[in-house]
Design goal:
Blueprint lengths: L5 H19 L11 H28 L21 H27 L4 H24 L5
Helix pairs in contact: 1-3, 2-4, 3-4
């Protein structure tokens, strides 16, 4: 947090506000636990898809001449420049991780239940984050 500029702080505040609002507006249904097996299975699939999708797309776009820049938390995520497109995906990954983590912890503390949908969001966000890191590592010297 020491190295964050105004954009980084605003992004963190937006994620916090959206996650807190989702907790306030959340209506827990007792029947949600019946779908946990479904959500846990889907979690594995979305993790693997995100893990494979981002490195392959990054590599494919770099073959067509698009130069990528390393994503930076202090950059504006809404950029029309393809080289900075990973900033948006990094922001979304942190948002999904935060949402899933807070929702899972909230349900676990308040209702003593496992919330599969929250775990699905958490695992998907981690998959996106790792996929971006793998894509950057795969490009190696070609990244700016």
């Amino acid at each position: 947090m020491k190295n964050w500029n105004k954009t980084g702080k605003v992004k963190a505040l937006v994620i916090l506000v959206i996650c807190v609002l989702s907790l306030i507006l959340f209506d827990y249904n007792e029947n949600a636990e019946e779908r946990n097996d479904f959500y846990l299975g889907i979690s594995l699939i979305t993790f693997l898809v995100a893990l494979l999708f981002f490195p392959l797309v990054i590599k494919l776009w770099s073959v067509f001449g698009i130069k990528f820049q390393k994503p930076n938390w202090n950059e504006n995520p809404i950029s029309l420049n393809y080289s900075k497109s990973l900033n948006l995906h990094l922001f979304v990954a942190f948002w999904i991780i935060s949402y899933g983590f807070l929702k899972t912890i909230f349900i676990a503390i308040k209702f003593n239940k496992l919330y599969g949908e929250g775990i699905m969001f958490l695992v998907t966000g981690i998959g996106i984050f790792i996929g971006i890191k793998l894509g950057i590592a795969w490009l190696g010297d070609k990244i700016e």
